[in-house]
Each structure stands twice: as structure tokens, then as C-alpha cells.
Design goal:
- With 237 residues, this protein is an alpha+beta fold.
- The protein has 6 helices and 13 strands.
- Strands 5, 6, 7, 8, 9, 10, 11, 12 and 13 form a 9-stranded mixed β-sheet that branches. It has a 4-stranded antiparallel β-sheet with strand order 2-1-3-4.
- Helix 1 packs across helix 2.
- It is elongated and about 70 Å long.
- Bound molecules: uracil.
């Protein structure tokens, strides 16, 4: 790989900015100053330093974003603010959100450039679990809970797969619950609640594939995943 491309990828800098560093002598390869941007490096073996700091090759990066309402889950949009607009400062090339949350849904969104992991997590065959905290209008009968747990008709050709229903709290015509599902159908949670006579007023994803939302992140904030969190995600085989 060219030296300037390697540094641009690692630092999320433009190639022209990187060429300036290189020409100024700020870059060493295996301890020797290299002033040629086109110099070929072996990113797995060479020790490449920028201003004395080693740049470690990292092919893939993994972030969690606490998605706020009012932004769309897309990399680009002509009219709306996107989740990637919130992450302009994140380093890593070709980042994208894994899966989709509705514009008005908050919570855990994984952002990465690891296409293979994304594919695995979203594959309908793998039944990766997602848990949502849901606030609703309406009454939640014991029968409705049973139906959510068994599978409900949301107007598709098949019932939903059995869901986990936990931590139900009822209060004067409203209720909240935690709902765990293993599919990713369009507006699935809202349609499941509708199918049992309720109406979702607030929706937040709190876990995905074993990864839990870091509640110390305010909406709109993001951070790199820790090593153990990445390993947890990789267990979704
Ligand atoms: N189900 C929904 O209805 N909306 C979401 O954003 C996610 C799951």
C-alpha cells in the first residue's frame, strides 16, 4: 500500500494533508524518515510513525452511537440529518450504520466498516436478538402478552417469531415494557404493539447481538467499542 494512503486511512486525513506531513519529514518507516508519498509499505509488518507516534494498522473499526430521534439512519440524505452527520469526527473509512432504526427511534446503533460482520448480524437466518424499551398508549392484557410471546399477525405472510416480554409497567392507560425480537421486519415493534391493540409513543433500542447501549452516552454521543464488546458481537456466528 502507498505510504500516503496508509496514513490517510489511519488518520482520516486527506491525502494532500498527509503528503505535506511526509514532505516535511514527519513520517518514519522502520525508523527512517521517508519523504516520498508513493513509497510502498507493508501495513502488517512495517513500523510507521507520524510525528513519533506509531500508527497501528486497523482494518475495521466499531462504534456505538446513541441515536437521537430526528436523524435518519443513512450514510447520506439530500434533506435530512443522518446518523453519519453526527459522526463526522469518527476515524475509519467507509463507515456505515448496521441495520436501521426509524427516524423517531432512539438508542443503540452499531456503526462500522466491517461488511462481513454487518451481514452476519442482519442475516434473517441468524436471528440476532434486539431488545427495545417501549412506551405505549393502551392497555396490555395478559392475553396480549401471551400473543407477543407466541407470535402475532402483523400483516405479513408469517406470524412474528416468539418475542421476549419483560419488565412490564402499567399506569393509567399507558404501559412500558422491554421487548426482545430476533427478526428485523419493517417497523416491527410498532406493528407488533399495534397488533395487540396498543400504540407506541416512545421506542429505544437497548441491546443488539449481546451488545448493550452504554447509558453514559447521551443521545447523539458515540464511542469506539471496547475489545470485549467487539468479541461479544463476533460471537453472533
Ligand atoms: N421496530 C420499529 O418499529 N422501529 C424501529 O426503529 C426498530 C424496530
Amino acid at each position: 500500500m502507498r505510504l500516503d494512503k496508509f496514513i490517510a486511512d489511519m488518520q482520516s486525513e486527506t491525502r494532500s494533508a498527509v503528503r505535506e506531513y511526509i514532505k516535511r519529514g514527519a513520517v518514519t518507516v522502520n525508523g527512517e524518515v521517508v519523504k516520498k508519498p508513493e513509497y510502498k509499505v507493508n501495513e502488517l509488518e512495517d513500523k510507521i510513525c507520524l510525528m513519533g507516534k506509531e500508527l497501528c494498522f486497523q482494518q475495521f473499526v466499531y462504534y456505538m452511537l446513541h441515536k437521537p430521534a430526528d436523524v435518519v439512519t443513512a450514510t447520506k440524505d439530500a434533506r435530512e440529518r443522518t446518523v453519519m452527520d453526527l459522526m463526522r469526527e469518527a476515524s475509519g473509512k467507509n463507515l456505515f450504520p448496521v441495520g436501521r432504526l426509524d427516524k423517531d427511534t432512539e438508542g443503540l446503533l452499531l456503526v462500522t466498516n466491517d461488511g462481513a460482520l454487518s451481514h452476519r448480524l442482519l442475516s434473517p437466518k441468524r436471528h440476532v436478538e434486539k431488545t427495545y424499551y417501549v412506551e405505549c398508549e393502551g392497555e396490555l392484557s395478559t392475553d396480549a402478552v401471551f400473543r407477543l410471546e407466541q407470535g402475532v399477525d402483523i400483516g405479513d405472510d408469517k406470524l412474528t417469531l416468539p418475542a421476549g416480554v419483560n419488565e412490564i409497567k402499567r399506569l393509567d392507560g399507558t404501559y412500558s415494557l422491554k421487548l426482545s425480537i430476533t427478526e428485523g421486519r419493517f417497523h416491527q415493534v410498532k406493528r407488533m404493539i399495534q397488533a395487540v391493540g396498543g400504540n407506541v409513543t416512545y421506542l429505544k433500542r437497548i441491546s443488539f447481538g449481546g451488545l448493550k447501549l452504554d447509558e453514559t452516552l447521551s443521545t447523539g454521543e458515540w464511542r469506539l467499542l471496547r475489545q470485549e464488546e467487539i468479541e461479544q458481537l463476533m460471537e453472533n456466528k
